[in-house]
Design goal:
Elements (H helix, E strand, L loop, with lengths): L1 H22 L3 E3 L3 E8 L3 E10 L5 E2 L4 E2 L4 E6 L2 E2 L4 E9 L5 E10 L7 E11 L2 E4 L3 E6 L4 E10 L7 E5 L5 E7 L7 E9 L5 E11 L5 E11 L3 E4 L18 H5 L4 E4 L33
Parallel strand pairs: 2-10, 12-18
Antiparallel strand pairs: 1-3, 3-8, 4-7, 5-9, 6-8, 9-10, 11-13, 13-16, 14-17, 15-16, 17-18, 19-20
């Protein structure tokens, strides 16, 4: 008898689940892949995905999630009764895109069978600009010194290359535009300079290249480097170990008690005087400064 009750309970449970599934909304897209074919670098691709509510419940669509900042998507409407139709509209910015392109849009909904459905945007972006090098890396830049790098730009679609400006957000980075060498005016040279601040830090930025009659950057060039400090200290900390306190400093006190720090100047056009700022808060700590290289290393 007990088994019969268990079997009946299971049957009733399955029946309830089946009934709820029949009454649930169902998100159905006409297509889940949008192939835009071939477009030029920097172009803007727009399109839409059409969907229906093929279920028996009210369908709710949350805000679509895109795989990158270059894609913007929206849904209209976000609530559909059974049988109604909606669409996901998108806009894809192909700035800096070259070669095969694949972006995704995730559509969250209350469809119990597919709570997050994936849409794909694909195609090919034809290169319009050839940038050499594609990234600028300055390496180490000493304080007060200016490092200089050049970037060659070539336009590949046969049109004239007219760069009005190249902008960065860092005050220690300066840029200028120089004409190219060929007679068809399809090339240009960007010059970027980084002046050392004296603060030991790595830096990154994006060079925005803007063409004539446009306020939107045509393409971007990553910039990176490292500023070095005015002085280098090696090691940066000293440590004394006392393995046997009762017999410390032992038979060779000069070795046990003495530690050395090397201080080097990274500025070649100015002499370094370490004696002026070497001091200690501990009266028992004696400091002696020896000059290894005149005005540069102590």
């Amino acid at each position: 008898m007990k088994r019969q009750w268990i079997a009946l309970a299971l049957w009733l449970g399955l029946a309830v689940v089946a009934t709820r599934a029949e009454e649930a909304p169902k998100l159905q897209f006409e297509k889940t892949t949008y192939d835009f074919g071939t477009a030029s670098e920097g172009a803007e691709v727009t399109g839409k995905f059409v969907f229906h509510n093929d279920g028996k419940g009210v369908l709710s669509i949350d805000k679509p999630e895109t795989s990158c900042g270059c894609t913007v998507a929206s849904v209209k409407p976000d609530t559909l009764s059974p049988g109604e139709t909606g669409e996901i509209a998108f806009r894809l910015d192909l700035t800096d895109a070259r070669g095969p392109v694949k972006k995704t849009i995730t559509v969250p909904s209350n469809d119990p069978q597919q709570p997050k459905l994936l849409l794909i945007i694909s195609g090919v972006a034809e290169a319009v600009f050839e940038v050499s090098p594609p990234m600028v890396f300055f390496g180490e830049v000493p304080p007060g010194e200016t490092a200089r790098e050049t970037i060659e730009i070539r336009r590949l679609d046969g049109k004239k290359l007219s760069i009005t400006r190249a902008e960065t957000s860092r005050e220690y980075l300066k840029t200028s535009v120089e004409p190219g060498t060929n007679s068809d005016s399809q090339t240009a040279v960007l010059v970027i300079e980084a002046t050392g601040t004296g603060r030991p830090e790595q830096f990154t930025d994006i060079l925005n290249v803007i063409l004539e009659r446009s306020s939107k950057p045509a393409f971007h060039i990553p910039v990176a480097g490292q500023f070095v400090a005015s002085i280098e200290v090696e090691p940066s900390a000293l440590r004394w170990t006392v393995p046997d306190p009762e017999h410390w400093p032992g038979p060779n006190p000069a070795v046990a008690l003495t530690r050395k720090i090397t201080i080097s100047s990274t500025v070649t056009n100015r002499s370094l005087d370490v004696v002026e700022f070497v001091s200690s808060f501990d009266e028992d700590l004696l400091i002696k400064v020896d000059e290894v290289e005149r005005g540069q290393k102590f």
